[in-house]
Specification:
single chain; about 80% helix; about 150 residues; 4 helices; mainly alpha; rod-shaped
C-alpha cells in the first residue's frame, strides 16, 4: 500500500500519467494465437476451394458428355457457365494466397510509437532538465497570453 502512495505522489509531483506496460509474453502469445488462427482459416478456405474446383471439373466432364450426345444448345450453355465458375474458383484460390501473404507481411511491419519516455541520468541532470522545461512552458504561455 505504501508503494502505491509513493507512486501516486510521484505521479502528481511530476504531473505524469502512470504507465501501464503489457507483458511482452502475453502479446507474443496473442500474436502466435492470431497467426495460428489465420493459418488454420487459410487452410480451410484453400481446402474448400480445391474441393469446389475438383467437383466442378467432374461436372464439366459430365456436362460436356451430355452436350455432345444431345447436341443441345442449352447443355453447351450450362457447360460454358460451369467452366467460368471453375475458372473463377481458381482465381479465388490465387487471391487467398496473395491475401495471406499481405496479412503476414503486415504483421511483420513494426510501427513504434513512444508515448512515455524514461529519463536516464543523474538527479542534477533531471533537475536541470525540468527547470528548462518549466522555463520553456512559461515562455510559451507568455507568448500565447500576449
Amino acid at each position: 500500500m505504501k508503494e502505491d502512495n509513493v507512486e501516486k505522489n510521484l505521479n502528481e509531483v511530476f504531473d505524469i500519467e502512470p504507465v501501464v506496460i503489457e507483458s511482452e509474453i502475453v502479446s507474443e502469445r496473442k500474436e502466435s494465437y492470431e497467426s495460428k488462427k489465420v493459418d488454420r482459416d487459410f487452410e480451410e478456405i484453400r481446402s474448400n476451394l480445391k474441393e469446389v474446383i475438383d467437383r466442378g471439373n467432374e461436372a464439366i466432364d459430365g456436362i460436356l458428355q451430355v452436350a455432345s450426345e444431345t447436341e443441345s444448345p442449352r447443355a453447351y450453355e450450362v457447360a460454358a457457365q460451369m467452366i467460368k465458375t471453375v475458372a473463377d474458383a481458381n482465381k479465388d484460390l490465387l487471391d487467398i494466397h496473395k491475401k495471406l501473404k499481405d496479412v503476414k507481411q503486415e504483421k511483420t511491419t513494426v510501427h513504434n510509437t513512444t508515448n512515455q519516455s524514461l529519463f536516464v541520468g543523474s538527479t542534477k541532470e533531471l533537475q536541470m532538465f525540468l527547470k528548462e522545461q518549466k522555463k520553456m512552458m512559461e515562455a510559451k504561455n507568455a507568448e500565447d497570453g500576449q
